[in-house]
Amino acid sequence: MRKWKTNARKRVDHYASHITGKTKIVGVIGDPVEHSCSPQMHNAAFSDVGLDYVYVPFHVRPADLRAALEGFKACGIIGVNVTVPYKQRVIPFLDQISQEAALIGAANTLIFEQGKITGENTDASGFLKGMKHAGHELPRNGSALVIGAGGSARAIAVALAREKLQSIVIANRTTSKAVALAADLSDKTSVDIRGMGLDDARLPDTVSMSQLIVNTASASMDITRPLLIRPEWLTPQSIVYDIIYTPPETRLLKVAMTQGCHTIGGLGMLLYQGAIAFEKWTQVSPPIELMRRTLQQALGQM
Ligand code: ATR
Fold first, then answer.
1. CA 20 to 30 Å from 215, out of 73, 86, 150, 244?
2. How far is CA 294 from CA 16, 200, 219, in A?
């Protein structure tokens, strides 16, 4: 017990010892925030490239969101990432918003500059980079199926629409959410986007005809739950991208592999959405491979 405490203290001292009066502060806000691996990933990256920055988790309660943002401005904080449940809730407090964050309706990266808060969204680009760096091309003239209709699905549907896929189907447990999201995004983009329930009779054919299938539904975290689509609907050569990163190989990915599909796990999207934020705050290229290894370690995947 005593030995553990000594080691823990050494580790804390190690991280804190480089902080000076000049150190710049970034961080993440969420409720909860304890699960976030972003502090490890960003602090390792700052240290690697020799930037005098520190990345801090801020547990902000819903009633304190406005005060926290005002406090960040007042304290000269450079920027924060935004995680659950605030990606949409921060929007009314922004002074400026990027076109993409406005289209997604959510911001996951804030920049505090000259007393103003700018909201950006790096989830869509992180999703696309995760795919590219896994060695896969988007099926530009093809169709995609997105499972889920929450914030992540929205960012991914925007990414796919921006890349001009021919058609996108959003399938969700709660049909009305999929239909509403599809209607909103097809209005705002020129892409054919439709919504349906996971119990829709057209789902098997939609899965079979989609060159890209993206899962965003958190049900994928639980390996004991039944799959949301049936393995036999999957056709070889289609790409199955599960953005859930714990476990690294979800049941959906395992099944997709046995059906001969190409598969992509969610760690890349997590990594790249963070790396893009890092670059926005620092104007320095992030050390991607180190950040990937740090994330894998933090998630117990190494
Ligand atoms: P995120 O911001 O990561 O997208 P979210 O907004 O909580 O997270 O969305 C989670 C998605 O997973 C939702 O689409 C949810 O479906 P509902 O809209 O019907 O709630 C989906 N989801 C969660 N658990 C599920 C389950 N057991 N079966 C099917 N879908 C599930």
1. 86
2. 18, 41, 25
Q: Check: CB of residue 244 under 8 Å from CB of residue 250.
A: yes
Rg of the chain on CA atoms, in Å: 20
Distances (CA, A) of 125 to 44, 84, 180, 275, 290: 22, 19, 23, 10, 20
Q: Is the CB of 197 under 6 A from ligand 1?
A: no
> What are the tens digits of pLDDT across the range 69-110?
999 999 999 999 999 999 999 999 999 999 999 999 999 999
Regions of the chain where pLDDT drops below 50:
1-2, 4, 6, 10, 13
pTM of the model: 0.92
- Tell me the CA–centroid distance for residue 291 and ligand 1, in Å: 28
Q: Which protein residue has the closest C-alpha to ligand 1 atom 6? A: 150
| Substitution candidate for ligand 1 out of 147, 173, 220 with most atoms within 8 A of CB | 173
- CA 172 to ligand 1 centroid distance, Å: 8
